């Protein structure tokens, strides 16, 4: 029997960069190119090109922990793009849904810091290569099905780029200047959530990376809306 594709899930750590008490949109780097994970695999630039074209105007599902069988596990809708670093997605959470709202708050508070991509790796898109003196698998094609929020991942190099309200992101880009960060309100920590693993990092308002993240997020938001 010939295996043409295998199901794959790859997880990455993310660190919070900014938060807004009224936010419903999250921008995150959910897969980093050319970083070897715990499975001795690395995603290569261009691996998501075909998948993103197949999604077209349809949103990428954002799930909780790769639960493909439970409708309540659907938390948000996203648009994605490949950058020099990897796959960046902008997620719009359903703030009227209690589960989706809770997931957003867990991201905002830093109690969830990791993402995982779910899909398939076609056999034709995998190649054995040498990196840093060892043999690893290079993934040149990944058939993306969904992106999940998870508690623990396999790769340390992804991060949340921005958590802001859609209106502020768009306004910041139109003015071609970093938007003023609204101080977070009272943190909402649901009692049945996982313990807080640590306080999240925050990017300064005037940093170049933060400004670029805002512009990228607002451009993606145009696709969502």
Describe the global form: globular
The helix fraction, in percent, is: 10-25%
Distance between the termini: 45 Å
Question: Per DSSP, what share of the residues sits in E-state strands of 2 or more residues?
Answer: 25-35%
* Spatial order of the strands forming the largest sheet: 1-7-10-4-5-6-2-11
**Could you tell me the mean pLDDT?**
74
Q: What is the total number of structural domains?
A: 1
Could you say which structural class the secondary elements and strand pairing correspond to?
Answer: alpha+beta
Description:
The protein is an alpha+beta fold. The protein has one domain. 20% of the residues lie in helices and 34% in strands. It has four helices and eleven strands, in the order βββαβββαβββββαα. The protein has helices at 49-55, 98-109, 166-174, 208-224; strands spanning 5-13, 25-32, 41-43, 60-64, 74-82, 86-93, 114-122, 126-131, 134-139, 143-150, 159-164. The strands form two sheets. An eight-stranded mixed beta sheet has the order 1-7-10-4-5-6-2-11. Strands 3-9-8 form a three-stranded mixed beta sheet, with no helix packed on it. A hairpin with a 3-residue loop joins β5 (74-82) and β6 (86-93). The chain is globular and about 45 Å long. Mean pLDDT is 74; it is low at 15-19, 176-205 and 217-225.
Search tags:
single chain, 225 residues, alpha+beta, three-stranded mixed beta sheet, 4 helices, 11 strands, disordered C terminus
